[in-house]
Design brief:
Largest sheet: 5 strands, antiparallel
Distance between the termini: 110 Å
Order of helices and strands: HEEEEEEEE
Structural class: alpha+beta
Strand content: 35-45%
Radius of gyration: 32 Å
């Protein structure tokens, strides 16, 4: 009987070691799962941010294309530099019944904006409407003025990418 009791006492030490090993393995498994979940969430956030930047660039391109096509008539569309940013902007001269106004489309502080002003007035960011966030916009006439070329710059995955487009003017 003493021999059996001695073995039982000896086994209690092994049970403790086994329990500590199981707890260590469970902790290691838990840390691994937690790390995988955090890594997956960060990857998803990065992919979603890249997708949003690409979508915003496409929205900006679509907006500019539509505005150019809506306003394509003689003397209505021009590309002009503005003091506010020092960059070129799209200027559309419009007339609604008895009222004339200018529509400026430009990028200010990373946002594509539209500003309606009296004819000949410069755009003002305080009275402008936000269209969509993008990085920058380069806009110019092509060599003979028959088309408007523009490039939209945006950040995607820590890299500056660009979306280029050309809109041929029928009114040329």
């Amino acid at each position: 009987m003493d021999r059996i009791r001695g073995k039982l006492r000896d086994n209690k030490g092994f049970e403790l070691v086994e329990m500590i090993m199981v707890m260590a393995l469970l902790a290691l498994f838990g840390v691994t799962i937690f790390t995988l979940i955090i890594s997956g969430a960060q990857t998803q956030d990065r992919v979603m941010a890249e997708k949003e930047a690409q979508t915003n660039a496409r929205i900006a391109a679509s907006y500019i294309n539509v505005r150019l096509r809506q306003s394509d008539s003689a003397g209505k569309v021009s590309v002009e530099p503005i003091e506010l940013t020092g960059e070129n902007a799209l200027l559309i001269r419009e007339r609604a019944e008895d009222w004339e106004y200018d529509t400026w489309i430009f990028v200010y502080d990373g946002v594509l904006m539209e500003c309606l002003v009296d004819p000949g007035e410069p755009p003002d960011d305080l009275f402008s409407f936000d269209i969509v966030e993008i990085g920058a916009l380069d806009i110019e006439y092509d060599g003979d003025g028959s088309a408007v070329n523009y490039t939209i710059y945006y950040e995607s995955g820590g890299t500056t990418r660009s979306l280029e487009s050309t809109v041929c003017l029928r009114s040329y």
